[in-house]
Specification:
The complex is a heterotrimer of chains A (about 350), B (about 260) and C (about 80).
Chain A: E1 4-8, H1 9-19, E2 24-27, H2 35-43, H3 45-48, E3 52-55, H4 59-70, E4 76-80, H5 82-97, E5 102-108, H6 124-129, E6 139-141, H7 146-163, E7 166-172, H8 173-177, E8 179-183, H9 219-235, E9 242-245, E10 252-255, H10 258-273, E11 278-283, E12 285-287, H11 291-298, E13 303-307, H12 314-322, E14 328-331, H13 341-352
Parallel strand pairs in A: 2-3, 2-4, 4-5, 5-7, 6-7, 10-11, 10-13, 13-14
Antiparallel strand pairs in A: 1-8, 6-12, 9-11
Helix pairs in contact in A: 1-2, 1-7, 4-5, 10-13, 11-12
Chain B: H1 3-6, E1 12-14, H2 32-47, E2 53-57, H3 65-68, E3 72-75, H4 81-91, E4 96-102, H5 103-109, H6 111-120, E5 125-130, H7 160-163, H8 169-174, E6 179-186, H9 190-206, E7 213-219, H10 223-226, H11 230-244, E8 248-252, E9 255-256
Parallel strand pairs in B: 2-3, 2-4, 4-5, 5-7, 6-7
Antiparallel strand pairs in B: 6-8, 8-9
Helix pairs in contact in B: 2-9, 4-6, 5-6
Chain C: E1 5-10, H1 20-24, E2 30-32, E3 44-46, H2 57-61, E4 67-72
Antiparallel strand pairs in C: 1-4, 2-3
Classes of the chains: A alpha/beta (about 350), B alpha/beta (about 260), C alpha+beta (about 80).
Chain lengths: ~350, ~260, ~80
Amino acid sequence: MKELALMKGNEAIAEAAIRAGVDGYFGYPITPQSEVMEYLMLQKPEERTGMVVLQAESEVASINMIYGAAGTGKKVMTSSSSPGISLMQEGISYIAGAELPCLIVNVVRGGPGLGTIQPSQADYFQSVKGGGHGDYRLIVLAPASVQEMADFVDLGFELAFKYRNPALILTDGLIGQMMEKVELPTQKERVSEYDQSWVTTGKTKDRERNIITSLNLDPDLQYEHNLKLQEKYKSMEEDVMFENIECDDADFLLVAYGSSARICQKVVELARARGKKVGLLRPQTLFPFPTKEIARRARRLKGILSVELSAGQMVEDVKLAVNGKVPVYHYGMLGGKIHSPDDVLKVLEEKYMGGY
Amino acid sequence: MEIKEIIKAENLVYRRTPLMTDATLSYCPGCGHGTIHRLIMEVVEEMGIQEDTIGVAPVGCAVLAYDFMDVDCTQAAHGRAPAVATGIKRLWPEKYVFTYQGDGDLAAIGTAETIHACNRGENMTIFFVNNAIYGMTGGQMAPTTLEGMKSSTSPYGRNNETMGPPYKITEMIAQLEGTYYVTRQAVHKPGPVRKAKKAIRKAFELQKENKGTSLIEFVSNCNSGWKMTPNESNIWMEENMFPFYPMGDIKVDGQLVKD
Amino acid sequence: MAKAKGAIVVDIERCKGCQVCMVNCPTDTIGMAEEVNGKGYHYAYMKSPESCTGCTNCAVVCPDGVITVYRVKPN
């Protein structure tokens, strides 16, 4: 019996979190994602599943609460938006360095700085390339619907625990605020067994003490540790996810994620109606990036247009994937403005005809 | 007497200070922010210091304060205004520098910056508008939200046990040696408004004496966040906020005021 | 000694109809108009102009600073 609801993307994240058996949420209000915590507080999750929900004094405090709880093996998460995620970068680097699982949700807004509250996709670099200091990567999921907002919570935790790495849901104010039908996941039991090889839950007689740290003063050890991290990130490739929308006979591809992809779905329809064989490759994981998939399709393409609500960030990864074989272009509105299907179509037609 | 005989230039006794810009205030009807902005600008006008005054705006409802006050302003990241103001005041000690912050800005995310600017005794003025809620982002709980008070993140009322009780950061900061003048005021009635204006004037004048930080807390209303009419919110404020956040001077001339 | 004679001028379009002036007027001079301004607010006005003393209480509590006050001193 399917459980259906009509909700906002932000609310879907919150409801899915309770159902995924999440142990704790620590967050701070910021537009356009305050509904996540408001919904959680309203649901009384301490009564539903015993989940802890705490409003911290800041995003810096939130991410450090996550760090502490994650070190005990609990399923914990936070959500914020661009300026707040910037505050979390130090904490995220620590979590990645200490190899802890957790889920962070970024409902991106226009920047830089305090910016706007309108949607944007200009945090791609911050999420996929680093953001915090050091050689680390996050697992990055990119939902394009309220359903995926719900589904990616459990998926995010699955991957985070599989790899002992923080996972980030990179969404935006459009998906966060829009309302769609969603099939809610079934309630999972909260886990009660913790991997005693690393969690700080109390040194019992049968084991050595566990230390959660990212500090390694011995350069040889830190080198080994970094090699291990890099191996881990390479191995994440097996969990790459993407959606293929009419790509198989296409001679021109759009590459877009999240709300930009929703807009591009319409562009594919419009272009095809005008006789152009256009497809949309929609990454659902931005790390691991569907590099191989784009590379293998490149041979048959006239060109690729990366469409993002930014000055062009993901386009660099597309260019790396095709490695010069095919021209790659970028188009996108900046600073919180949203491009329309017609805006994209106009640029597409120029590039399709071989324009520069 | 005909009204038109009264309304003449020579009979003018009060007009809105020209140091408030022409922009319509973006604050909700009845919100104390408008009154407080105006009082600060009246003092700047009366002291003739518009050219030497620099304000630092917060993140919160007053993020747009710089649209309404006709003085040079810097917009600070959430909670960082005291640090931003320190940067300005240290390099321009002869200027009048003030921060204007809400309860989330000053007492949640900005706690460290607030404490340390006051501890260093920066010769500036901190205006702290405490309406026990996060207005701009939609009415979430603040560190100063009262026990039992409903907000969007305390929908069943603030539970002191799980969320911690509200705290009086003003009394805490008054303990620091670096603070010189700490007082709590209100602007919901004419009497308190006139007292508040005197406090603002005193705080600005103290900047010239290099004796330390002045902090004025304004206990104010948020009728939108509290879900009341403006007049209802002012009554509620008197009955509920004032007992917990009492009016009056907390520290004067560098000495804590004994009860 | 006769009371001072006062009058207020309300910037109708800027008034947000919050009614804070009305409850702080010591002589019950102020009322809220039945008409609304361009933003849909019932603006403040002198419903009993003869009782205004020009005390400025209304103007000093007005969050939007929309009130200008005039006063003729007695004698």
